[in-house]
């Protein structure tokens, strides 16, 4: 389902930098990420590792599982109906060759098979639309959670820019500017609180 691409689109929009989906690894300075990020000309910048955020943010992990289950169920449903239709069509062809039907019967059965085929296409479109709507809902929730948390986080940190980093969109990045762990920890704390409140 190319979920990583889907998720990355939302994250890139939520942060305040530029990004692309190139997967190759850039050179990284090996300074400890716990170092205080230095300021440049009075402006502070930072970046968040997209892959790490997606793999460690519990909201992403939970919703990815939901989308995977839903996608697999859709595939199974469509595959089952497609197999049944193919079996019915093959059976019809065999009986036509054996002259088991009158012309009227054959035309009626053929029309029924065509209707099943049309219904299957309509079902495919409906389920695909529902899955896309669910994915869009997730992307919006991810975007909103990031925007909300970054706004709170940055009240004290005062970063001028926070970039999303994935692949080569940043050709060089000093680890001192990496705030991924802080962001993931904060997001997970907020998400855990919301999940606990929802259970009550």
Please explain how this structure is put together.
It is a single chain. This protein has 200 residues and is mainly alpha-helical. It contains five helices and four strands. The protein has a two-stranded parallel ribbon with strand order 1-4. The protein has a two-stranded parallel ribbon with strand order 2-3. The chain starts with a helix and ends with a helix.
Could you give the topology of this structure?
Elements (H helix, E strand, L loop, with lengths): L2 H12 L12 E3 L14 E6 H7 L1 H40 L5 H55 L1 E7 L6 E3 L5 H20 L1
Parallel strand pairs: 1-4, 2-3
Helix pairs in contact: 1-4, 2-5, 3-4, 4-5
Q: Quick summary of this structure?
A:
The protein is mainly alpha-helical and 200 residues long.
What's the number of extended β-strand segments? 4
Shape: elongated
Estimate the strand proportion: 5-15%
- CA-CA gap between termini: 34 Å
Computed structural class: mainly alpha
Strand order of the largest sheet: 1-4
Rounded mean pLDDT is 83
Task: Give the helix proportion (percent range).
Answer: 55-70%
Number of contiguous helices: 5
If you compute it from the alpha carbons, what radius of gyration comes out, rounded to the nearest whole angstrom? 26 Å
Low-confidence stretches: 1-35
Q: Strand count, sense and closure of the main sheet?
A: 2 strands, parallel
Order of helices and strands: HEEHHHEEH
């Amino acid at each position: 389902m190319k979920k990583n691409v889907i998720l990355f689109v939302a994250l890139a929009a939520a942060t305040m930098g530029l990004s692309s989906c190139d997967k190759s690894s850039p050179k990284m300075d090996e300074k400890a990420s716990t170092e205080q990020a230095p300021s440049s000309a009075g402006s502070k910048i930072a970046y968040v590792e997209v892959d790490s955020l997606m793999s460690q943010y519990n909201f992403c992990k939970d919703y990815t599982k939901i989308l995977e289950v839903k996608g697999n169920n859709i595939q199974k449903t469509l595959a089952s109906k497609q197999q049944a239709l193919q079996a019915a069509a093959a059976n019809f062809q065999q009986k036509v060759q054996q002259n088991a039907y009158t012309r009227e019967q054959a035309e009626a059965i053929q029309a029924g098979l065509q209707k099943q085929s049309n219904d299957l296409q309509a079902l495919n479109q409906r389920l695909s639309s529902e899955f896309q709507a669910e994915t869009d809902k997730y992307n919006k929730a991810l975007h909103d959670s990031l925007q909300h948390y970054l706004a709170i986080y940055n009240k004290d940190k005062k970063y001028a820019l926070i970039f999303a980093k994935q692949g080569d969109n940043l050709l060089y990045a000093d680890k001192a500017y990496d705030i991924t762990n802080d962001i993931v920890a904060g997001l997970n704390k907020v998400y855990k609180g919301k999940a606990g409140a929802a259970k009550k």
